[in-house]
Amino acid sequence: AEVRRVLRPGGLFAFATLGPDTLHELRAASKVVDDTPRVLEFTDMPELARGLQQAGFADPVLDRDLHRLTYSGTAALFADLRALGATNRRKDRAAHLTGRARIEALSDAYEIHRDASGRLPVTCEVIYGHAWVPAGDAVRRKRSGNPNEVAVPLSSVRRRP
């Protein structure tokens, strides 16, 4: 909504974000250890498209790529995640620090994903998208609660000669 607010009519919003298949191996290993959510869940493409349309964008186009990274072990993976600043920002996350026993259990649970070359895979789903701000003077009403309502200023209505 904020991007839509600052773009002019006819403006283009292009973005890339992570999708729900990102870190799915780590999410699965975490669920084996306990029920405490440890991996952020990312928004899928249909929800992103709905959000763009609800914010007043037109013609959203989304695509995705899957990238597979591999690591020698979970220590290298966790070091990369820390270096990226990836932290558990979930509101329902555990209030305590993750202890050594849980880290070891998580590493053990991740082992089922080790590939034939002896590497641990990590999937990153990247969603690319763009959408346009409708051109012209038509502006979606936000206060009426009806996203399908469009206001057209009288000054933009012209009579035929």
Report what the structure shows.
The chain is 29% helix and 24% strand. The chain contains five helices and five strands; from the N terminus they run αβααβααβββ. It has a three-stranded antiparallel β-sheet with strand order 1-3-2. It has a two-stranded antiparallel ribbon with strand order 4-5. Helix 2 crosses helix 5. The two termini are 39 Å apart. The mean pLDDT is 84.
For the CA atoms, what is the radius of gyration?
22 Å
Low-confidence stretches: none
Order of helices and strands: HEHHEHHEEE
What does the largest sheet look like? Answer: 3 strands, antiparallel
Structural class: alpha+beta
Q: Could you report the average pLDDT, rounded to the nearest whole number?
A: 84
N-end to C-end Cα span: 39 Å
Name the beta content range: 15-25%
Q: Strand arrangement, largest sheet?
A: 1-3-2
Shape: elongated
- How many helical elements? 5
Helix content: 25-40%
> How many distinct beta strands?
5
Task: Give the arrangement of secondary structure elements.
Layout: H1 2-6, E1 12-18, H2 24-33, H3 45-54, E2 58-71, H4 74-84, H5 100-110, E3 120-132, E4 139-140, E5 150-151
A few lines on this structure:
This protein has 161 residues and is an alpha+beta fold. Helices cover 29% and strands 24% of the residues. The strands form two sheets. Strands 1-3-2 form a three-stranded antiparallel beta sheet. Strands 4-5 form a two-stranded antiparallel sheet.
Features:
5 strands; alpha+beta; 3-stranded antiparallel beta sheet; two-stranded antiparallel sheet; 5 helices; 161 residues
